[in-house]
Amino acid sequence: MATSISVTGFRGSWGASIAGEDYNMLLSKTMPFTNFRISGKPVRSQPMMKNINEGKGLFAPIVVVTRDIIGKKRFNQLRGKAIALHSQVITEFCKSIGADAKQRQGLIRLAKKNGEKLGFLA
User: Fold this and answer.
1) Element (H, E) at 24
2) By CB neighbour count within 10 A (0-12 exposed, 13-18 middle, 19+ buried), where does 34 fall?
3) Distance from the Cα of residue 78 to its chain's centroid
4) Exposed (0-12), middle (13-18) or buried (19+): which is 29, by Cβ within 10 Å?
5) Tell me: the pLDDT tens digits for 23-82?
6) Residue 36: CB partners within 8 Å, gap ≥ 6?
7) What are phi and psi of 111, to 5 degrees?
């Protein structure tokens, strides 16, 4: 099968001929399932901000039941206060042993990872 592409003009006018077929016909054959709106702009899916450990971990069932009982808004407020308090405890611990800011930040990241694994952030 012979394939040829021809370019005409110097100002950007392109003429494409592939095996004698029209360019739009070629696109319709090779890309039958395109996600384009009428305006031609691609459709973007919304990013999902979801915890990958949702429902996993030892404490996840307790966290989910508590969230359902007291409501999502109030639960997130309490969770925020608990996280802030825990970060303060880590900061005070780092001050007492003489750890620098980089080590403190590493401990806070480690606490977050452990909280996800245990299900506290479900």
Assistant:
1) helix 23-30
2) exposed
3) 25
4) exposed
5) 666 556 655 555 545 556 666 666 665 656 566 788 889 999 999 999 999 999 999 999
6) 42, 43
7) -60, -40
**Gap between the Cα atoms of 33 and 55, Å rounded:** 35
CB 75 within 8 A of CB 66: yes
Can you read off the two tokens belonging to residue 105?
């930040």
pLDDT > 70: what percent of the chain?
Answer: 55
Q: pLDDT for 74-114, tens place per residue?
A: 999 999 999 999 989 999 999 999 999 999 999 989 998 99
| 3 state DSSP class of 2 | coil
pLDDT-derived band at 120 (thresholds 50, 70, 90) equals confident
Rounded to 5 degrees, φ, ψ at 18 are -115, 110
Q: Which of 107, 51, 40 is nearest to 79 (CA)?
A: 51
Mean of pLDDT over the chain:
75
Q: Which of 44, 79, 49 lies closest to 64 in space, CA to CA?
A: 79
